Model the fold of this input.
Amino acid sequence: MTITSQPDANQFDTVALEYDFMAKLFHSPQPFINYMTQQKTCALDLGCGSGLLVTELAKHYRHVIGVDMSYNMLEIAHARRNAPNIDYILADIEQLSLPEQFDYIISKNVFHHVTNIAVIIARIKSWLKPGGRLMITDVISSNPTPPQYVYRIGAIQEYIPNVIQYGLANANRVYRFRTSKHWLNHLASDQYLSEKEFRCIFEGLLPSCTFPDNGFVIWDKVKI
Ligand SMILES: C[S@@+](CC[C@H](N)C(=O)[O-])C[C@H]1O[C@@H](n2cnc3c(N)ncnc32)[C@H](O)[C@@H]1O
Done:
């Protein structure tokens, strides 16, 4: 693991192990696989967490870099999802400098944590090779962040369907995580864009981008 800057410990450090369990259980890499580029030299995952998407991309790309500011998330990624063609960098993506250019840059559920989207998008554009592609997905919501009891009710409602789909032990673990103090505090501090705001911001920053689904944006850097 390379450390390029010393980010402050973030909320994901506290929940890393349980977040990885959840992410693995509900993991769906398919949209990022469907939109892979034809050129497959180098890919980058911004806010890679415990490396679930990095490891999928590494089956296709010659070199994949995952960047995250949570030491504990990257420790799990390093231990569980490593390969000779994978590098993990501990850094804040808002202060990142990178040694190479990429065919494919992805980011899943990270942009609602970012302070200055415009600055990051400008940097991403410079990290993409001509002909390269950016794909971002994020959580969106038309409603303001709800109070914690709403998340607790959601966890109760999901419990039986989760028992049926994933078994009792997994459903119990999901329930414990979703109603844990750390996770509820984290959710309380999250602020999401609405779909309208999401589209408006990315249309402005990424001319000719497309939105294949709610909370998804794709942009291809024109070949010169
Ligand atoms: C909701 S998790 C998503 C993790 C992973 N993309 C996934 O889908 O499993 C958000 C991740 O973004 C990271 N993150 C948030 N802001 C960041 C920043 N400014 N620089 C680097 N990583 C960041 C957090 O540490 C966390 O691992």
Remarks:
- The radius of gyration is 18 Å.
- The beta strands are 2-3, 42-46, 63-68, 86-90, 102-108, 128-137, 216-220.
- The mean pLDDT is 92.
- The first strand starts at residue 2 and ends at 3.
